[in-house]
Design a protein that fits this description.
The chain is α+β, with helices and mostly antiparallel strands and 71 residues long. It has a single domain, classed as Alpha-Beta Plaits (2-Layer Sandwich), CATH 3.30.70. It contains two helices and four strands; from the N terminus they run βαββαβ. Strands 1-4 form a two-stranded antiparallel ribbon. It has a two-stranded antiparallel sheet with strand order 2-3. The longest helix is centred in the first third of the chain and has 5 residues, at 17-21. The protein is globular and about 35 Å long. The model has no long low-confidence stretch (mean pLDDT 96).
Length: 71
């Protein structure tokens, strides 16, 4: 099973709530990139480890994260 996390970098404000919520600790803030609003967007560091729990999407106040599960 493979899971897909899509992050809308234009909506992400780099608050880090998704980073704190991820049980696998694979959500990180991309310190090498800024979005047009000047925020460091979040990203998945190791997508193959994602369990598809969607805690990151649940915690995101901007609804910038979508988690899809492949079965």
């Amino acid at each position: 099973m493979k899971n897909f996390v899509t992050i809308d970098e234009l909506l992400c404000k780099g608050c880090g709530l998704c980073v704190a919520a991820c049980p696998k600790k694979i959500m990180i803030l991309n310190r090498e990139k800024l979005n047009p609003k000047g925020y460091n967007p979040s990203m998945v560091s190791e997508p193959e480890i994602c369990i598809g729990c969607a805690m990151c999407a649940t915690m995101c106040p901007e609804s910038a994260i979508v988690v899809e599960r492949e079965v």
